[in-house]
Amino acid sequence: AGNGELRARVAKLAHTWGQLRDELSALERSNADRTARQELLAYQIGELEDLDLSAGEPPELEAEHGRLANAEELLSACGQAREILFEAEELNVASTLNQTLHSLEPYTAFHPLLQETYGLLSNCTIQVQEAARNLRDAASHIELDPERLSWIDERLAKISDLSRKHRIAPEALPAHLVSLQSERRSLNQADDRLTELSQTLEQANTAYHDAVLALRDSRQRAAGELAAAVTHYM
Question: Which residue among 42, 56, 82, 218 is the one 20 to 30 A from 118 at the CA level?
């Protein structure tokens, strides 16, 4: 019948169809597990996206929480330090240094050590003034904000909860979210592959069926010609 090419095509199409069928069967078998994993990922990603944690935020919140939780003590400490250094009416460090400088100044020319001491005390006076300004500036940035403190408490609790749930450090949560999103995309692509594979298998089945019919028709024609030839020779 001269069907060498057609037989080879049928064999190739049969092999392709078999491979596609096996791949589709494997994907369908894992579909239940994949669906369960996708549901879990959707829940976990939703939690992390709602948290919307930025890189470096946990230590910043911890530091701010420490300032707010100890705001009253910090303000009191700054106030007391400024009082001792600069603001006490009867006696403070700055006034004491000034009195000491005033008492030494007339005699600095008589002894090099007195001159050196005067210079050291002058520097101390400048540093005390700078320290007092720093304490004033620090106190101006310390806020008594119970509502903000309560919000930070709640946010740190959420961060800690998700950190324990995923068994990673709080700082690693943003990167973990990216990883989960990537895994979900891969699983979604598997769903797309399942749909694509089903369509491809159907096309391969049609091509195989058409080739088989063509081979059958060719063989039937050849059989008729062979029968006629045999009859003629007989």
Answer: 82
pLDDT tens digits in sequence order for the chain, 234 residues long: 888 888 999 999 999 888 888 877 777 766 767 788 888 999 999 999 999 999 889 999 999 888 888 888 888 888 889 888 887 877 789 889 999 999 999 988 888 999 999 999 999 999 999 998 998 888 887 777 888 889 999 999 999 999 999 999 999 999 999 999 988 887 877 777 778 888 888 999 999 999 999 989 989 988 988 898 899 898
Q: How many CB atoms lie within 10 A of CB 62?
A: 13
Structure tokens at 199: 């369509």
Query: How many whole angstroms separate alpha carbon 227 and alpha carbon 28?
Result: 49
Contact 129, 86 (CB under 8 A): yes
- Quote the longest CA-to-CA distance of the chain: 152
Q: For residues 100 and 46, is the Cβ–Cβ distance under 8 A?
A: no
- Please say whether the beta carbons of 184 and 45 come within 8 A: yes
d(C-alpha 35, C-alpha 197), whole Å: 18
Structure tokens at 174: 């943003």
